[in-house]
Amino acid sequence: MTNIMPVDQFPTIAQIDKKFIEMWLHGKSEKTQRAYRADIHKFYTYVQKPLQGVTLEDFQNFIDSLGNLKPTSQARTIAAVKSALSFGVKIGYLQFNVGAVVKLPKIEDTLAERILSEQQIAKMFALETNPRNHAILILLYRAGLREAELCDLQWRHVQNRTEAGQVAIYGKGKKTRYVLLDQETWREVVALKKPDDAADTYVFQSRQARSRSGAKSRRLDESQIHRIVHAAARRADITGNVSPHWMRHAHATHSIENGAALTLVKETLGHKSIQTTAKYVHVRPNTSSTQFLKI
């Protein structure tokens, strides 16, 4: 995993809030920590004040300074600062939440542009000849896994179910869910297991051990998953910056279009809210009022 920026590398003024920042980030995923640390670092670099001295005007001026970023990046950065300020008030570190009145910018919904067709998914599968990479692609799609969930998968999580099996996923929100695998997917995954693989061996390993939480690990990094998916998309002549999450979008969309109940898709994907699952219906409607026009 890419090293997470330590608070010691923040602007000098931020060292006053060092203990608070670590408490704010405690328990968050490594992906979230990387993003939040980069965003709050950007905030300190601009305002040059500890959080207890930040005013609403400071925050608003900082937001104005983000005009060179894409709307999604702006929204993420603003959300990170708002999260820190809200947490500060919650634990009594800050007296006022100057970010409470700051609204996140509206973001264009581009989900429909990131949903691959069944034909495109099939072509990506067909052109991937590396057994490990092929198993990665099919698990991202058929099990709807997030890239971090895929990388965290150990053999103890892969459980036999008569002729097929299931995987136990400890995912976002610190909850465990169980996802059934069809026979074809099950056989392909278990074929990767080596005789000396222990229960806590990662299913997908990197060739070199990486430093992770103070220890060496052969856990495959999410960045490698991105490269595998992007390369598979290129081979299949799919344009756009295709990421592992596009496979998850495709799983949700195709399963719903093929008759799966929203509640089932929600539980399989580990969505916190049914509204998150329902958005796939909204971006790929089966009917529209345009079909009722006469001229």
Write a concise keyword list for the protein shown above.
globular, DNA polymerase, domain 1, two-stranded antiparallel ribbon, 295 residues, 3-stranded antiparallel sheet, hpI Integrase, Chain A, single chain, 2 domains, mainly alpha
Describe the fold and architecture.
By secondary structure, this protein is mainly alpha-helical. It folds into two domains: 7-90, Orthogonal Bundle (DNA polymerase, domain 1); 116-246, hpI Integrase, Chain A. Helices cover 46% and strands 11% of the residues. The strands form two sheets. Strands 1-2-3 form a three-stranded antiparallel β-sheet. Strand 1 (158-161) and strand 2 (164-171) form a beta hairpin. Helix 11 (262-269) packs across helix 12. The longest helix has 20 residues, at 71-90.
Which secondary structure elements does this structure contain, and how are they paired or packed?
Blueprint: H1 18-25, H2 30-47, H3 56-64, H4 71-90, H5 118-127, H6 131-142, H7 147-152, E1 158-161, E2 164-171, E3 175-181, H8 183-190, E4 205-212, E5 215-219, H9 222-235, H10 244-257, H11 262-269, H12 274-283
Antiparallel strand pairs: 1-2, 2-3, 4-5
Helix pairs in contact: 2-4, 6-10, 11-12
Brief synopsis:
The protein has 295 residues and is mainly alpha-helical. Helix content is 46%, strand content 11%.
Mean pLDDT: 90
The CATH architecture of the largest domain: Orthogonal Bundle
Strand-residue proportion:
5-15%
Can you tell me the overall shape?
Answer: globular
Strand elements, count:
5
Topology pattern, helix = H, strand = E:
HHHHHHHEEEHEEHHHH
Task: Indicate the CATH class of the largest domain.
Answer: Mainly Alpha
Q: In total, how many domains does the architecture comprise? A: 2
Low-confidence stretches: none
